[in-house]
Amino acid sequence: MGAFFASAIDLMLPRACGGCGTPGTDWCADCAAALSGPPIRVRPRADPRVPCWALAPYRGAPRRAVLAAKEQHRADLAGPLGFALARGLDTLRDRARPLILVPAPTRAGAARRRGGDPVTGAAFVAASWLSDCRPVRMLRLRAGVRDSVGLGRGDRQHNLRGRIIVAPGRPNQARFPANAEVVLIDDVLTTGATVTESVRALTAAGVTVRAALVTCHA
User: Fold this and answer.
1) Of 91, 97, 135, 151, which sits with the fewest C-beta atoms within 10 Å of its C-beta?
2) Beta carbons of 171 and 21 less than 8 angstroms apart
3) Alpha-carbon torsion 156, 166, 67, 188, what sign?
């Protein structure tokens, strides 16, 4: 009976892989493989003063999956993207230390249009796969931040400068588990402006960021 209803749902709302469009599955094995390699060290033009890592270049299946999650309201992709982040984090972390994942902020209007924030969704899924790990939403954007699509490096930095802040009432490092590692999570690293401003805001709030991990680097 369950299989019958699943088939009926597929007929009404056909599933397609978020990375390649293959019908009948949300996420195929080939696209999963594109995000299964070891994290790549990335050095963005704007230096955030913490190591930056990415799971894959911003092309092919990883790029299409990120865009589908953001622009096609594919909340189901938080599962595979979060799992890929968890695998990457597991290779980078010190397992003797607690891990805190801080999602990079997104514009409130964009999150409403998308039915949620894909970066936060993926971070929460990643944390669920890892031991002694929890996600903490700490960052938000001030009003006036524009969509970064089409902006160059200087414009991106100007657009975000001073506009990423730690939300009032959020925990600081003193309230995290002792010796916790804090890692910033984002979907795409282009110029490094978002990571740089996020690290700046966290540092100003007394939070030491160990690294940043993104799904893709441009």
Assistant:
1) 91
2) no
3) positive
Residue 67 predicted with pLDDT over 60 = yes
Tokens of residue 142, six digits: 């001030």
Tokens matching residue 60: 């092919």
Question: What are the start-end ranges of the E strands in 84-153?
Answer: 99-103, 133-135, 139-141
**pLDDT mean across residues, the chain:** 86
Q: Which residues of 8-17 are buried (b: 16+ CB within 10 A; e: fewer)?
A: eeeeeeeebb
Beta carbons of 40 and 201 less than 8 angstroms apart? no
What domains, with CATH codes, occur in the chain?
Answer: 29-217 (3.40.50)
- Residue showing tokens 């397992």: 95
Q: Compute the radius of gyration of the chain from its Cα atoms.
A: 17
Helix/strand/coil (H/E/C) assignment for every residue in 45-84? CCCCCCCEEEEEECCHHHHHHHHHHHHCCCHHHHHHHHHH
Tokens of 12: 């009404």
